[in-house]
Amino acid sequence: MIQCPHHVQVALALVGAVCVLAVGHEWLYRTADRERMDELILRSAAALESADITYWAISGTLFGAHVDKRTRYADFDGDLSVLVADADKVRNLPWKSHGLLLYEGYGGFRVKSSTFNTLRVDIILVYDEKACACMRFGWPALESPPFSYGLVPSEYIFPLQRSEYATGFIFVPNRTDELLHWQYGQYKFEPPVGFRQLLMATIEKQGWTRIMPLVHIFGPTMPY
After folding, report:
1. Is 51 helix (H, G, I), strand (E, B) or coil?
2. How does DSSP assign 139-191, residue by residue?
3. pLDDT digits over 30-39, tens only?
4. pTM of this prediction?
5. Domains, the chain
């Protein structure tokens, strides 16, 4: 049996890893996915606006609006926030008339274009804490009083600004850069791409988002 030299084995392993990452990311996230994600975010935002629901982009969607003016590459979920006071308006909005489906989760809602589509927009509920002039992010269905994972000054959020996004516009916080620093610290404009990101994306996009619709069949609240 012919033995390959150790350095050749290492070289082949590195080439294989590069190929897996390249092919894997293409399988996980195609250019068309990014375009569909842009469209889904804009449609979700338009639906909220049609019902006079105050919303704004956060997390990855805010990052995309701030840096790329569209969905970031390899981001397969949208992130919007609404006030807890508007939760019933979100529930009662005729989503199907907008060609969308609404699922309720522990921390807010999830919007999809079809049941088994892996792309989605998460709508996260936020509390307006007037006593401290701040916004509180929490998970209202998990604990009472709700668990809070962060307080951010209201002036970071309001007044909302209208920002260009792909082929349309969405609302973003008043002080986007400061809010992103609050959430991510000294963030990098180019997100890391490696085996860990590929593995987590595989679990999230090809596994979790496909399983959740089945869970929802057996209960009114879809955990995520």
Report:
1. coil
2. ETTTSSSPEEEEEEEHHHH-S-EEEEETTEEEEE-TTHHHHHHHHHSS--SS-
3. 678 889 999 9
4. 0.78
5. 32-217 (3.30.460.40)
